[in-house]
Amino acid sequence: MSSLVNRQIRLVRRPQGVPQPSHFERADAPVPDLAAGEILVRNHYLSVDPAQRGWANDEGNYSTPVPLNSPMRALAVGEVVDSRAEGFAAGDYLYGWFGWQDYCVATPAAVLRRVTEKAIPLTASLGVLGINGLTAHLAFHKLGRPRAGDIVLVSTAAGSVGSFVGQLARIAGCRAVGVTGSPEKVATAVARYGYAQAIDYRHEPDIEAAIARACPEGIDVFFDNTGGAIADAARGLMRLGGRIVQCGTAATAAWTPPPTGPRAERNVLTKRLTWSGFVIFDHLDDFAATAAKLAALIESGQLIYDEDIVEGLENAPDALTRLYTGENRGKSIISLV
Amino acid sequence: MSSLVNRQIRLVRRPQGVPQPSHFERADAPVPDLAAGEILVRNHYLSVDPAQRGWANDEGNYSTPVPLNSPMRALAVGEVVDSRAEGFAAGDYLYGWFGWQDYCVATPAAVLRRVTEKAIPLTASLGVLGINGLTAHLAFHKLGRPRAGDIVLVSTAAGSVGSFVGQLARIAGCRAVGVTGSPEKVATAVARYGYAQAIDYRHEPDIEAAIARACPEGIDVFFDNTGGAIADAARGLMRLGGRIVQCGTAATAAWTPPPTGPRAERNVLTKRLTWSGFVIFDHLDDFAATAAKLAALIESGQLIYDEDIVEGLENAPDALTRLYTGENRGKSIISLV
Known about the structure:
Chains A, B: Residues 17-334 form the Enoyl reductase (ER) domain. Two copies of one chain form a homodimer. By secondary structure, chain A is of the alpha/beta class. Helices cover 24% and strands 27% of the residues of chain A. The first copy, chain A, has two domains: 5-127 and 306-335, Medium-chain alcohol dehydrogenases, catalytic domain (Quinone Oxidoreductase, Chain A, domain 1), CATH 3.90.180; 131-281, 3-Layer(aba) Sandwich (Rossmann fold). Chains A and B meet through β14, α7 and β15 of A and β14, α7 and β15 of B.
C-alpha cells in the first residue's frame, strides 16, 4: 500500500434532476499498490460535464449509474506516476476516466487518449481536445458532411460543443448560424465562435420566423444539441438533401413517456433528409487523428477555446450545479495543481 | 399531321382526396407531326399509381399539378413508332412519362429507361422493373444498407414496393417482417413476398407489442412506407445503428398543419439511428444498372411479381380509384394491346 492519500469526491445520495453539492461528500482513501496491468495516474485537471447528471441519476442511457459511495465518475487529465501496464510509463500524460479524485488506479481501458501536444496547455485536453472538440469535429464532418457554401444551423451555439462547431463550419467555408439563450451568448457566438449570426431563442416570439430570417436560403446542416421547438422549426427549413446531426436533446427534461411534437416523416421524405444520432464513445478509434487536426487548428490560431477553471477538488460539486444555471463561461474545469 | 387518332383520358376536374372517375373524361386528339428532337411512342401498357392522386390534386409535393383538360400524367411502356431524336429508332421499347393515352409525342427527357429485356413480359417494366422495383432495390440497398442477419421491418409489406423489399431482404440474408392491413395480405406476404412473418395491424390491439413479439431482437432496418403509429412503434424497437428508410407517409392524410406524434430525437440519438428520405426520381442514373439486377433475379426465379391487368384505356380512372380501397392484387396496369 502506498503512503499517498487520495482525496475523493464521492456520490453519496442519488439526485433526482440536477445534482447538488449535498449529493456528494469529500473523503480520503488509501492508494492501493498496482496490480499487473494497472497504472497510477495523478490527476491534474478534472472535467465537469453536463453528462454527469445522467451518470449520477439511475436512468443512465449510455452507461450504468455511478455506484453510491464511490468517487464521482469524471473525465480527467493527469500524469502517470507509476505503471505496471505495457506501453505506459511514468511521465506520460493521459486523458481518461480517472474520476473526481487526486489519484486513480486505472487500466488502459480507462484511457481515451494520450496527450502528446507540448505547445498546448494540458487543460485543453478536457475540452477542445477532449470529448467536446472531438464531438464537434467528428459529428460535424462525419455525419454533417459539410460542403463549402453550406448553411449550418447550430443549437446551443455558445455551448461546450457548439462553440467549436461554429468555428469548424467557418473553417469549412460554411455560413454558421447559431441559436443560443441570452444576448451575451449571442454576442460571444458571433465575436468568438465563428457564427455569422446568432439568435437568442429566449427573446424570440417566433423561433421559426427568426431562423427563417437568419437562413433565408434554408439549412443544409442542422447540428442539434437540443431537440424540441428549435429542432421542429429547423426541420421545416431544411434544404433538399440536408443533414440533421442529433448530438443532444437538452430541450427535453424527461423521455418517459416521450413528449409529442410535430411529426417528422414528411420532412424527412420530401426533403430527402439524413437525420442521424452521434455518441462520441462510438468513435474512440478516431480520437488520436482528430485531436491532431484540432491541435493544428489551435496552433495556427484558427480555433479558439474558452475555459472556466476553478481551483480545488472540493469545488467540483458546486461547479457541476452551476453548469445547469448557465453561469459558466467556457469549459468547466477543476484544477488540482 | 398524322392521320392517327389519339384516345386520351384527361383530367377535367380537380379532386379533393381520392380521384374518382368523374374527375376524368375520354377525348380524342390528333397526333401532331414530330418536330426535331421528338419521338412518337405508341403506348402498350399504362401504369396506375398511388402517386397520381398527388399529381391530380393541386398540392403536389414533388411536381406541378397536372393541368386541367390535359391527358392524365402517368408512366407507361410503349414502342417507338417514329423518331426525330438521335439515339431513338422505331421498334425501341421505352418506359417513361407517356400519359394515359394511346400515343405520346415525347422528348428524350420523358424517357426513364430503355426496355431491353427480351425474356421478361413488357408489363414488368411498369412494376418490378419500373419505379416500384427500382425504389425497393435502391432505397433498401443504398439507404437501408442491409447486412446478412439483419432484421428488416417493412410497412405496407404487400404493397407495390413492400412486396419487393421482403424478397430483396431475404435474398440479402436478412429476416424480413412485414406489416400489412388484412389477413389475406399477411398470408400473401409470407407465401409470396419473402417475409418470415407478417402482422395485420388492423387487427392488433397493440401494434408495438405485436412488432416486439415478431422482432424480439429488435430492428436493424425499418423500411417505412406509412409513418404514423406503425413508425412510432418501430422507432422504439430499433437496434443500435439502425437505419430508417422513409419511402412514403401513407398513414397521414394531411400535413398542413403536421399532426403530432412522439418525439423522435431521443431514439435517433441514443440508438445512433440514421433516418433518411428516399425519392426515386433522385436516382435516375441508377435505373439501368438496377433494372438489370432485378431482371437477373426474375430470370433466375428468385424474385416474383404480381400484376393486376385491366384491358382498355377507358378503365384507367376506375383502376385508380380502386387502388385506394386496396382491391387490386398486384401492380395495377391498363393494357392497350
